From TrEMBL, chain A:
Record protein name field: glutathione transferase
Ranges for domain GST C-terminal: 88-208
InterPro entries cross-referenced by the UniProt entry: Glutathione-S-Trfase_C-like, Glutathione-S-Trfase_C_sf, Glutathione_S-Trfase, Glutathione_S-Trfase_N, GST_C, GST_C_Tau, Omega/Tau-like, Thioredoxin-like_sf
Keyword Oxidoreductase among record annotations: no
Pfam family, one: GST_N
EC top class, as a word: transferase
UniProtKB/TrEMBL annotation, chain B:
Classification via InterPro entries: Glutathione-S-Trfase_C-like (IPR010987), Glutathione-S-Trfase_C_sf (IPR036282), Glutathione_S-Trfase (IPR040079), Glutathione_S-Trfase_N (IPR004045), GST_C (IPR004046), GST_C_Tau (IPR045074), Omega/Tau-like (IPR045073), Thioredoxin-like_sf (IPR036249)
Species assigned in the record: Juglans regia
Protein name: glutathione transferase
GO terms under cellular component: cytoplasm
Gene3D superfamilies: 1.20.1050.10, Glutaredoxin
Amino acid sequence: MAEEVVLLDFWVSMFGMRVRVALAEKGIKYEYREEDLRNKSDLLLQMNPVHKKIPVLIHNGKPICESLIIVQYIDEVWNDKSPLLPSDPYKRAQARFWADFVDKKVYESGRKLWTTKGEEHGAAKKEFLEILKTLEEELGEKPYFGGETFGFVDVAFVTFYSWFNAFETFGEFSMEAEHPKIIAWAKRCMQKESVAKTLPDQQKVYEFVLGMRKRFLGE
Amino acid sequence: MAEEVLLFGLWASPFSRRVEMALKLKGIQYKYFEEDITNKSPTLLKHNPIHKKIPVLVHNGKPIAESQVILEYIDETWEGHPILPKDPYERANARFWAKFIDEKYLPGIRNALSAEEKQHENAVKEACEVLKHLENEIGEKKYFGGEAIGFVDIVANIIGFWLGITEEISGTKLLTREEFPKLSNWADVFVSSSGIKENLPPRDKLIAYLRTRLGTRSTDASK
């Protein structure tokens, strides 16, 4: 059966990257469409009328929205290789819990690093480093959050690696110094083709965030 | 094999009740522990050190936290009344709406019911937009899950029951039958459904409890 897979995305979005990594892990051929978020396409607005956001996966004409929901969908449909979620229900629950933790905490906290100043910024930095500490403790001595193999939580968090340079610069800290295990884990993930080919260059992301920051702070 | 299922919850919390609804729908025996969220037990803190919140399900000694994660776990572990659909696309759709309810509906409603005068009108408008999406989604279906109660219905318990109560306390009516006939109808069907109605807290007791808590404008500590 002819399979049609389209991804509406934006190159710098760590959420969109999650879907790209999952598609690559599964070896799925798809059409990538770059959205201009300041001038969203009719297709995007039609496929995601509720949130009007990327990423949106369109599979044989039917849209799926929200990055982690898309990743689970991909895992369930293309279930013949590279499982992303574990098969044991308890381990699956743990994977969902931690992916949810990344979703709730990392983006919002990271965002404050480049949108705040002064005292607020100090608090944001402290909060961000605490979140990373929690994740580092969860990783422990495991090669991946998923255990021996790359999995759901790894997909959920590794895309933020492309934003690390931006976080470090605006947050005024060194990731390597504060959380070396996270860096080691990220580099391990980057040895996988699906991750290495998806994540954009950290410098490019930094320049993008710099631009956003200037507009946000009105500089 | 002896099965041990424990639930650490709060009688007034919709998140806690979601888990009870799922357990009851599946016919699972469990032991319930009422938490005092102003004085959380060491057991709760041990089982949920990250968020320190209820509900927490402990199955044969292993804890699971976050109500939606718990619901999926229950569905995957026990047979009986299916909570999520089998088809991957429908599952994705169910997860989408459940996420929408907790991430968009909940903060939106809170804003609308507690906003200061200046922001009130805007907050109410935004909350109604959220309700409109849900009105469209329920459509002509009996439940969000179709013919039977499903994942989204259980998660939407905060709309089905708790919304009416918080509207009464705040004096702002959002879910009107004129504007949202389908969603209003769903709410009526939901609260009278078997498996749900037995798991709702007593109305007067809940009103009194929430009046005290909302009166201090504290954020909902339970999820």
